[in-house]
Write a sequence for this structure.
């Protein structure tokens, strides 16, 4: 049966290979024709550059690479703007603040939100690469909240205790490392379990800021659980009773319990929601622009920026718990 | 079929010949380019890591430096150590390194580094870190460089030596022509030195060319003492906002994490995959085999991101809650199942004279029952032996349980590599010549004996190759580890601790590493390491399979 079928196939194949002269010519011509069609199609598919320049309304793609903390805000701003200008679209990469610096220096993006200040080294590299300094716009004051699982009886921590939990260097001077919950006076009875320490990954600006503000520039412990986004940290802590973590104040929700932080154990602690007092873990969020001097920004970027710095933009900032500058 | 019915025209012949030639060359080009791509990948990786191993230099740039362009660091900012009550043990002429966290002190025996251990030590807040190889001359002066942990020593004879404090290495040395050398100043960027001295106040400019001074081979593999720490440790922490920070590159936690994850995955995958392969190849009829094998291979195409997501978000909290149950499911299920089979077999043989164990439906029901029993048993065991909470029990014995741990990774990654091992092991078993098995059976072996005594030994090399391939895949697996392992760089083989693998580390840190920086090159070095590891595994597997093929060609 199989052999029979094979023979039939062979017959058909022979027929096609041993074609008369005309057919061969025709095949050649047909192939040529298809090539011509292909070339024509390629030519037609090149975008029409002149058409886009003629349009006068504000539209275009806002492309940003950078902070995960600010990514929520950036999309909220753009959404608010899109109500009146549906032509503006957003391309958002939120890999962390360090990716912003790298992208700005290499010229991959012209606008990058960062949750920390660009380091001197990065600013120098930018200036060396582009020939002019980077434009820095401070946007808002943010608070890094430290939070635990809602079942945890802990309500406040001093900076030294925080340092002893998160760091292996303890530069704030706590006498011994805190690795288990029973080592803290307020959770002595609550649990004997080991503390699971959650953090953003190293590309994050929040990670760097927390290192400076809470650990006094020391090193994190090796057991640090690093997760790629702020939301992942919040979810991680919410799903683990023994966890402690940190993220921007903008990510506060009911799944977690934020802690009040005090400068030293003698002083009274300040809750992250308390806008009156000075919170120890405050930092400033920035927007960085690659803007050559004496030139104009692309119109949609300029419009977007104007919106962000307007009262409307600031209202959005306030609604996510940040203090506009 | 005769050729007389159709004539082959010369033009068509020509067309065919050209087409033939064209396609042959095209295919050859494709083959060559594949090999070339692999080679160039290797070359690229090596080329990018090579600058790490280049020796640093001090170059005389007196003619080239535009002196008015260089901003020198003011003398005030180069702080010598003030010898007060805080630092009574340190002798005169010591300097703070950049960041004021460690002191370099010149002594008769050579230079030594003190590092700040902790701020609350009662007597002397510094601990002795390391000595430096130093060709001691009288009147040596020190100068810390801004922006890094490098420093230079110089003396009136004009011998200038560049050191790096973290690595403890002498990077470069140069003899200046100025005699006597009075003073050295350094530029703000820390890349130029201005030497002044001599009879007529001469100046000389030196350029420091040490882009990867903070790297050394031993820092990767040995426990190392860093500023702020009490004792040497394996630490992987690469970035910070400031340049006061010492980057810490230890491959040890990453390698341990990689091997640990692969080990636990194999521990889970090997028994299941190989037993399944034996069953499919040796006991299943051809018709069932024809759909079971492709079905398992299809599982290989399951995206590992999804697996990682499931592992991190669902499985990890679930396993933490029911640890005893999960462990008893893994350990007790096969035992109970075997017990059941033996009992049923005996019973039915006694009653009916035939075994019921070949019925698939009965088997599945039995499995379900066993799962129920072993999970219930797990809870009972937890209550009776572990005070009702296994995690707490472990905790009391000093074993910390982390939610994202080797168990979760072992289960999920084991699931991911199982299809590969199964498929290749099954191939190895099925390619054992049927004549061997039939021979064994003809000599009186039972089917099981034929499998264990004849087929398994002959296919052993192929099964080993399958495991190797699975191992190679587990080493390179990224997404599951990235999402579920917690990425904590601990040097620990415990089942209940997290890990950080080389591949996941690359996925986390590669986007932020500045091209050309030490961090970037160290990451590339780790990528090369990973590449060579998986390459080694796959080559080993290929060689073993080749061997197998040659051994059975004669049957």
């Amino acid at each position: 049966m199989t052999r029979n079928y094979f023979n039939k196939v062979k017959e058909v194949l022979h027929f096609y290979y041993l074609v008369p002269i005309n057919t061969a010519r025709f095949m050649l011509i047909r192939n040529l024709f298809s090539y011509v069609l292909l070339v024509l199609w390629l030519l037609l598919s090149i975008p029409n550059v002149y058409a886009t320049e003629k349009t006068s309304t504000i539209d275009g793609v806002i492309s940003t690479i950078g902070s995960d903390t600010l990514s929520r805000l950036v999309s909220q701003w753009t959404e608010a703007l899109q109500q009146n200008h549906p032509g503006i679209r957003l391309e958002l990469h939120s890999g962390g603040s360090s990716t912003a610096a790298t992208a700005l220096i290499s010229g991959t993006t012209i606008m990058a939100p960062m949750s920390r200040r660009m380091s001197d080294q990065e600013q120098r590299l930018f200036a060396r690469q582009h020939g002019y300094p980077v434009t820095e716009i401070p946007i808002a004051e943010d608070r890094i909240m430290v939070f635990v699982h809602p079942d945890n009886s802990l309500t406040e921590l001093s900076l030294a205790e925080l340092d002893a939990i998160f760091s292996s260097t303890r530069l704030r001077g706590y006498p011994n490392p805190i690795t288990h919950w029973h080592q803290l006076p307020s959770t002595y009875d609550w649990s004997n379990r080991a503390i699971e320490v959650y953090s953003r990954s190293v590309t994050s600006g929040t990670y760097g800021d927390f290192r400076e503000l809470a650990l006094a520039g020391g090193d994190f412990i090796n057991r640090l659980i690093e997760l790629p986004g702020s939301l992942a940290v919040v979810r991680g802590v919410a799903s683990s009773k023994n966890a402690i973590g940190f993220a921007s104040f903008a990510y506060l929700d009911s799944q977690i319990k934020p802690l009040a932080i005090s400068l030293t154990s003698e002083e009274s602690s300040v809750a992250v929601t308390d806008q009156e007092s000075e919170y120890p873990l405050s930092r400033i969020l920035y927007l960085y622009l690659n803007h050559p001097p004496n030139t104009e920004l692309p119109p949609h970027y300029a419009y977007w920026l104007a919106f962000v710095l307007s009262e409307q933009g600031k209202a959005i900032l306030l609604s996510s718990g940040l203090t506009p500058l | 079929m005769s050729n007389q019915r159709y004539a082959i025209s010369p033009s068509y012949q020509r067309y065919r010949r050209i087409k033939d030639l064209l396609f042959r060359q095209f295919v050859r080009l494709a083959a060559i380019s594949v090999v070339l791509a692999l080679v160039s990948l290797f070359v690229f990786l090596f080329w990018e890591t090579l600058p790490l191993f280049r020796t640093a230099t001090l170059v005389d740039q007196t003619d080239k430096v535009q002196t008015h362009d260089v901003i020198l660091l003011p003398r005030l900012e180069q702080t010598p150590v003030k010898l007060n009550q805080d630092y009574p043990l340190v002798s005169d002429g010591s300097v703070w390194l950049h960041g004021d966290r460690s002191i370099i002190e010149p002594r008769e025996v050579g230079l030594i580094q003190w590092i700040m251990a902790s701020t609350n030590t009662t007597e002397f807040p510094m601990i002795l870190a390391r000595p430096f190889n130093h060709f001691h001359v009288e009147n040596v002066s020190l100068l810390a460089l801004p922006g890094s942990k490098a420093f230079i020593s110089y003396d009136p004879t004009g011998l200038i030596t560049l050191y790096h404090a973290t690595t403890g290495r002498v990077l470069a040395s140069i003899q200046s022509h100025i005699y006597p050398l009075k003073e050295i100043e350094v530029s703000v960027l820390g890349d130029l030195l201005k030497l002044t001295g001599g009879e007529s106040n001469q100046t000389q400019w030196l350029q420091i060319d040490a882009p990867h001074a903070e790297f050394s081979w031993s820092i990767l593999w040995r426990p190392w003492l860093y500023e702020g720490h009490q004792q040497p440790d394996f630490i992987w922490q690469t970035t910070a906002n400031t340049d006061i920070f010492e980057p810490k590159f230890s491959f040890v936690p990453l390698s341990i994490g990689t091997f640990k994850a692969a080990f636990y995955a194999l521990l889970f995958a090997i028994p299941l995959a190989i037993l399944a392969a034996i069953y499919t190849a040796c006991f299943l009829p051809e018709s069932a085999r024809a759909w079971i094998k492709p079905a398992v291979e299809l599982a290989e195409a399951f995206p590992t991101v999804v697996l990682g997501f499931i592992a991190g978000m669902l499985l990890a909290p679930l396993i933490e809650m029911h640890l005893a149950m999960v462990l008893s499911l893994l350990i007790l299920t096969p035992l109970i199942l075997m017990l059941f089979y033996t009992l049923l077999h005996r019973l039915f043989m006694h009653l009916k004279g035939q075994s019921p164990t070949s019925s698939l439906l009965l088997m599945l029901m039995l499995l379900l029952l066993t799962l129920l029993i072993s999970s219930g048993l797990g809870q009972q065991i937890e209550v009776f032996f572990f005070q009702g909470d296994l995690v707490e029990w472990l905790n009391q014995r000093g074993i910390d349980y982390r939610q994202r741990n080797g168990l979760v990774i072992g289960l999920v990654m084991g699931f991911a590599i199982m299809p590969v091992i199964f498929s290749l092991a099954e191939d190895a078993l099925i390619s054992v010549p049927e004549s061997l098995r039939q021979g064994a059976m003809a000599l009186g072996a039972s089917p099981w004996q034929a499998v264990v005594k004849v087929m398994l030994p002959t296919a052993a090399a192929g099964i080993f190759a399958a495991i190797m391939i699975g191992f190679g895949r587990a080493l390179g697996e990224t997404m599951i580890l990235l999402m579920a392992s917690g990425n904590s760089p601990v040097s620990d083989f415990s089942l209940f601790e997290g890990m950080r693998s080389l591949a996941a580390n690359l996925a986390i840190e590669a986007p932020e590493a500045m091209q050309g920086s030490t961090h970037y090159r160290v990451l590339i070095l780790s990528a090369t390491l990973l590449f060579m590891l998986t390459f080694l595994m796959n080559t080993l597997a290929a060689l073993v399979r080749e061997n197998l093929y040659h051994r059975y060609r004669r049957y």
About this structure: Chain B has a mean pLDDT of 86.
